[in-house]
């Protein structure tokens, strides 16, 4: 799967976001090593600690299906009619570190043509581990 195809999957996932409080819609598409793609969207709750990010939604869906080997994630986000570079939050970065290798690709995109790509190790250089 190309980066652009993964980004398109993230945009489709973003359409399902539930964000009545922040109005910030996020979609993520997680590429497994076997080629399977899991998508996720952010799901807010009036009690903000109950909110779940798009990236964690996708990872948890994959893990709950028994997947453990991941190649990349594409993330898109922004207000309803805009997209910005929506980088994963610290909690999502740490969850990625739990399940992904240091060279796992994190793609943040405004569009299919305008995106940035980072290895996880660059976004979370000193992750918590044992």
Blueprint (SSEs and pairs):
Layout (H helix, E strand, L loop, with lengths): L2 H12 L10 E8 L4 E5 L12 H11 L5 E9 L11 H10 L5 E5 L5 E5 H4 L7
Parallel strand pairs: 3-4
Antiparallel strand pairs: 1-2, 1-3, 4-5
Architecture overview:
With 130 residues, the protein is an alpha+beta fold. 28% of the residues lie in helices and 25% in strands. It has helices spanning 3-14, 54-64, 90-99, 120-123, and strands spanning 25-32, 37-41, 70-78, 105-109, 115-119. A five-stranded mixed sheet has the order 2-1-3-4-5. The longest helix is centred in the first third of the chain and has 12 residues, at 3-14. The chain is globular and about 35 Å long.
Measured between the Cα atoms of the first and last residue, the distance is 33 Å
Biggest β-sheet: count, sense, barrel?
5 strands, mixed
Q: Decide which structural class fits the backbone.
A: alpha+beta
Query: What would the principal axes of the Cα set say about the shape?
Result: globular
Strands, total number: 5
Let me know the average pLDDT. Answer: 96
Listing every helix as H and every strand as E from the N terminus to the C terminus, the arrangement reads HEEHEHEEH
Helix content: 25-40%
Strand order of the largest sheet: 2-1-3-4-5
Low-confidence segments, ≥5 residues, pLDDT <50? none
Proportion of residues in β-strands: 15-25%
Computed over alpha carbons, the radius of gyration is 13 Å
Per DSSP, the total helix count is 4
């Amino acid at each position: 799967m190309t980066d652009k195809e993964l980004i398109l999957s993230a945009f489709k996932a973003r359409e399902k976001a539930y964000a009545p409080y922040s109005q910030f819609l996020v979609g993520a598409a997680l590429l497994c090593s076997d080629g399977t793609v899991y998508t996720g969207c952010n799901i807010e709750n009036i009690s903000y600690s109950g909110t779940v990010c798009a990236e964690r939604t996708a990872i948890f869906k994959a893990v709950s299906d028994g997947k453990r080997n991941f190649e990349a994630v594409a993330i898109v986000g922004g207000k309803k009619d805009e997209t910005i570079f929506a980088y994963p939050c610290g909690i999502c970065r740490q969850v990625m570190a739990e399940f992904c290798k240091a060279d796992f690709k994190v793609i943040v995109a405004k569009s299919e043509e305008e995106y940035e790509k980072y290895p996880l190790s660059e976004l979370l250089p000193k992750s918590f581990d044992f």
